Amino acid sequence: MLIDFLQPVIIISVFASTIRIATPVLLAALGELVTEKAGVLNMGVEGMMLTGAFAGFYFTYETGSLWAGVAGGMLAGAALSLVMAFMGITLRLNQTVIGLGMNLLASGLTFYWYRISYDIGGASGTPTVDIFPPLEIPFLGNIPYLGEIIFSQRLLTYIAFLMVPAVWFFLYRTKFGMALRGIGENPRAVDTKGISVRKYQYLAVMFGGMMAGLGGAFLPLGSTALFVTEITAGRGWLAIVLVIAGNWVPWRVMVAALVFAFLDAFQLQAQGLGMKVPFQIMLAMPYVAAILAMMSTRARSIAPAALGVPYARE
Amino acid sequence: MHIKALGLFIERRETDSAVIKTASLLIAIVAALGVSALLIRMWGANVGEAYSALFIGGFGDFKAIIDTLIRATPLIFTGLCAAVAFRAQIWNIGGEGQFLAGAMGAYLAITLFQGIPRPLLIVLTLIFAFLAGGFVAGLSAFLKNRFNVDVIVSTVMMNYIIEFALSLLLFTVWGDPNTFYPLSPFIPEESFFPMLIAKYRLHAGIILAVLAAFFAYLLVEKTPRGYELRAMGLNPIAARFKGIHPGRTLMWVLFISGGFAALGGAVELTGLTHRLRPEISLVFGFTGIIVAMLADLHPLGVVISGFLFGGLINGSFAMQVQTGVPVSIAYAIQAIILMFVLSASVLTRYSIRRAKDVD
Fold first, then answer.
1. A171, A37 contact by CB (below 8 A)
2. Which residues in chain A are contacts of B43 at CB distance < 8 A?
3. What is the dihedral of CA B257, B259, B263, B265, to 10 degrees?
4. Among A75, A161, A273, B75, which one is least packed by beta carbons within 10 Å?
5. What does the pLDDT read at residue A135?
6. A308 contact B CB<8A
7. Using CA atoms, how far apart are residues B124 and B130, in angstroms rounded to an integer?
8. What's the pLDDT score for residue A299?
9. In what order do the strands lie in the sheet with B8-12?
């Protein structure tokens, strides 16, 4: 059975799908990383991804433009994160509770909105959109193996992976990013320097929401071509796990995303090859792996010191 | 904060006021229904007509109230699951999986102990369910204590894992050979939970749910153990200095919390559906979180909010029939209520007084 996996075609296909599958969780995880670096714990990533997925599908279906869907997904994620920021930063409510509330809100709203927008199970069948075509990079795409694995992906995938150095540069090499990290460690110190803690935290939360929305939008627009309720299936939670497993370092978060995506790609391929393992066990693997990843991440000292504690000036 | 122009003085409230809490809750619910009205308008239905259909469908007559009680039963159990854990600031999001585990535990007991006297069998289904749910939730406590795995993350992941486990069992050893669908055979009649009004399918699960709520209330508010639980919730660091062992408290609180959700799964199986299927939980675990929040995490309040949400879900079916608004709106309304209730909790933190009363 295992020998089936060792054919070049299969290996290329598994690795290429690994990179594709990593895209949405990587986008959401990088957003969550920036949010958490600013000291805000956003437990609503799942809901923001789900909303992004729905909005992405909705706007592309209605306008026929993929970019309208991408913009819609990002805006929807940002809108939801604005609510989150208002409740978690301005009203200083428990950020864990609000995050959970956001998830339930997104779940309820997308479920309802999808039902009223489309006649599911009707004569016209399930609505679908045309997804982003693969974009082969000139020259690089012709490299044997690597070309097919890395350089024949969709545009959003390239963007996701380019965001890794971009987020790193922003956090560690710009004034804004350093202030942001300072807020996550010691908001009072940054406040006394005359920097608005609230403003920075709002921006960080909204960036996180936009990235989660974009990651969510990739699901219908870069992969499934349709929307189903709970399409995110825990990917937002996985993004939170990735930030912890990656120890709040952008490139490590990327590695963690790739490991999880590989598991997923592997199980998809195994099902395709008709492996005799029940499909439920295969499908449960990423969730088990998430718990295992959390078990092996013992060094938590690098987590922002003021994470999840709403800042009050008085 | 002093607003001179208005002659008002805003200050932090020292004690909780039941009147203020109730008032802010009512404001939140009215505001949420206002926002939800926009969703109904989006569909194109008449808001007044829709809401009256919703209300009559949920609470309008004897039959509606009975149906609401049936629907409220699992919600009270999952609401208790969330309320007990959240009071200790333990974020058990695994009510969904623990509910399913309870149904599976009860089913296992039925397959193991067929033929024994009925009362004994029913008690065993409940015990097996409680242990199954307690074990699933306790696993998250173990992972936290031993490996420092975040409780939220592990309980969320367990929800998915349990769902797949149930699916696997229903497609293999527990599946009904007469159907292609993931369904178990019907359970034997001697394992049925006692009926209160057989004509309306009202089973005694609601009695058990209310008893469980009283038990939770006594446990949380009136026992030394409950004091530990509340101390953890108020200030985990101070609790440690008072000699409360956080790991041990985490373990028993999660075990009982999971057990509550699991009892809900058991009576849903033995009292209502009589066969195991993946849709035995209609996201009761997640709705339970909102039920608990609406009750301000008070176990007895969970009975009331569970009843209201049971009516909301049932009423939404009547609303769909009469106005066409999809039943999924019930889930949107629930979540909108939650967000407003959370926001309104800010109101209870502060009091507004006239400045001259202060000085």
1. yes
2. 116
3. 90
4. A273
5. 86
6. no
7. 10
8. 53
9. B2-3, B8-12, B350-354
How close is the nearest chain B Cα to the Cα of A20, in Å? Answer: 22
* pLDDT recorded at residue B359: 42
pLDDT of residue A75: 98
ipTM of the complex: 0.89
| pLDDT by position in tens, chain B (length 359) | 555 556 666 666 656 677 888 888 889 999 999 999 999 998 888 999 999 999 999 999 999 999 999 999 999 999 999 999 999 999 999 999 999 999 999 999 999 998 899 999 999 999 999 999 999 999 999 999 999 899 999 999 999 999 999 999 999 999 998 888 899 999 999 999 999 998 999 999 999 999 999 999 999 999 999 998 898 888 878 888 888 888 999 999 999 999 999 999 999 999 999 999 999 998 999 999 999 999 999 999 999 999 999 999 999 999 999 998 999 899 999 999 999 998 888 877 766 555 554 44
A101/B contact by beta carbon, under 8 A: yes
Give the whole-angstrom CA distance, residue B275 versus residue B104.
10
Would you list the domain boundaries of chain B?
A: 46-324
Confidence of residue A301 (pLDDT cuts 50, 70, 90): low
Gap between the Cα atoms of A302 and B238, Å rounded: 25
Helix, strand, or coil here: B328? coil
Show the CA angle centred on residue B350, arms to residues B345 and B356, nearest 5°. Answer: 155
| B13 Cβ contact partners less than 8 Å away, ≥ 6 residues apart | B20, B348, B349, B350, B351
Nearest to B168 among A104, A280, A290 (CB): A280
State residue B234's pLDDT score.
Answer: 85
Looking at residue B177, the DSSP 8-state letter turns out to be T
- The CATH number for B46-324, chosen from 1.10.3470, 2.60.40, 2.20.20, 3.90.1570, is 1.10.3470
- Interface contact flag, B161 A98, Cβ < 8 Å: no
Burial grade of B322 (CB within 10 A; 0-12, 13-18, 19 or more): middle
Q: Which residues of A touch B346 (CB under 8 A)?
A: 91, 93
pTM: 0.91
CA B147 to chain centre: 28
| Any A CB within 8 A of B207 CB | no
The phi and psi torsions of B350 (rounded to 5 degrees) equal -125, 155
Specify the DSSP element, H or E, that contains B51: helix B47-59
| Cβ-based contacts of B91 with chain A (< 8 Å) | 96, 100
Question: Distance between CA atoms of A74 and A55, rounded to whole angstroms?
Answer: 8
Q: Note whether B15 contacts A: Cβ–Cβ < 8 A.
A: no
**φ and ψ at B197, to 5 degrees?**
-130, 100
All structural domains of chain A with their residue ranges: 23-232
Reduce the DSSP state of residue A36 to 3 states and report it.
helix
Q: Which of B349, B343, B260, B273 is nearest to B302 (CA)?
A: B260
CA distance B338 to chain A (A): 7
* A196, two tokens: 């608005």
> Which residues 6+ apart lie within 8 Å of B258 measured at CB?
B81, B92, B94, B98, B101, B133, B134, B135, B136, B137, B138
**Phi/psi of residue B9, nearest 5 degrees:** -135, 120
Dihedral sign, Cα of residue B242, residue B247, residue B250, residue B256: negative
